[in-house]
Amino acid sequence: MVTIGIVGAGLRGRLFAEALHTQPDVTVVGLAEPSEKVASQARAATGLPVVPSHGELLEKLDPDAVIVATPDFAHREVAVDVAEAGKHLLIEKPVATNLDDAHAIAEAVHRSGVRCLVGFENRWNPHVVQAKAAMDSVGDPITASATLSNSYFVPTTMLSWAAKSSPAWFLMPHTVDLILYLTGRRAVSVNAVGSRGVLAKRGIDTWDVVHALVSFEDGSTATLSSAWTLPDAGDGIVDFRFQVVGTEGSVTADLSHQGLTVVSDKYRSTWPVAGRIGRSQVGPAVWMVQDFAAGLVDGGDLGPGIDHGVLVTELICAIEESISSGQTVQLPAPQP
Questions:
Q1: Among 73, 114, 63, which Cα is nearest to 95's?
Q2: What is each CA distance from 297 to 23, 189, 293, in whole angstroms?
Q3: CA separation for the pair 160, 74 (Å, rounded)
Q4: From the CB of residue 268, how many other CB atoms can be counted at a distance below 10 Å?
Q5: Which end of the chain has less neighbouring CB within 10 Å, N or C?
Q6: How far is 82 from 149, CA to CA, in rounded Å?
Q7: Long-range contacts of residues 82-85, Cβ cutoff 8 Å, at least 24 apart
Q8: Mean pLDDT to the nearest integer, 85-114
Q9: pLDDT, tens only, 203-228
Q10: What is the pLDDT of residues 139-176, one digit of tens each?
Q11: Whole-angstrom Cα distance, residue 283 to residue 111?
């Protein structure tokens, strides 16, 4: 039996608690949430105890593993404390939004020897799984592209902390991981541009749009684009597409609606799918957390770990640096 605690009782924390409710040999012992309003909602939704801090969760509930479902910028203290307490970790992407925090978390994980999964949930998206399986048939990658954008709804309504994030930090971890996963190539440099001002007029002072050109060690390239300014009048809150072109073929996908579009004043289609089939929760995030728990039970592979999480953070930090400097930014060489 594996016991799991969850830090962060918002939408994701509650989703993870429900996804694990019927998981064999797994018990969710409770959640940690400093906001009493959110904590109250989580108690009502899950029926689980909710304590005010991760320290209290570790001390009173003593789980074997902890899921860090706090906002992007608030991972370091929780993840380091959890690792130092000898608990296994699932950390939502990105592992951190600056290099100091990312390296501190990685050092704590390696020092303690705990197992760690960074939540790049597209690894559990059936379309991405099939794309990865097809990569051998398209030859060596020549170029790739990925677009992942949101409508205004996400930064203005869904996220209370959007001003502390950006399209680069909220969206590009998915596409950076996707391109690295599909191509298997090491990024060596980044050129990036961005624009801002539209969201600032709505009281959210962050980037509106970010574009990045990534160069890899074999000379191949990838272009990444993310925006938080799609019209809310559209048919959903997400635009998600990718392509890899190789020497012998290509892989192309449009995952914006997972093949389903609903247009109605009373319904807003979302991605990724997180819903129910019969009594079961479904969707990449659900399958990811269930696979994490199963891996802890049987000792199997968990998926992308802390070092890969740091690599993605390094690349997005380089994107930010390139936007600010207007220069090409070289990525650090891999550690021996």
A1: 73
A2: 10, 39, 6
A3: 13
A4: 15
A5: C
A6: 32
A7: 82/7, 82/54, 82/58, 82/114, 83/108, 83/109, 83/111, 83/112, 83/114, 83/116, 84/108, 84/111, 84/112, 85/58
A8: 98
A9: 999 999 999 999 999 999 999 999 99
A10: 999 999 999 999 999 999 999 999 999 999 999 999 99
A11: 33
- Residue identified by tokens 């400097």 is 325
R_g of the chain computed on alpha carbons: 20
pLDDT score for 273: 54
Cβ neighbourhood burial of 277 (10 Å; 0-12, 13-18, 19+): exposed
**pTM (2 d.p.):** 0.94
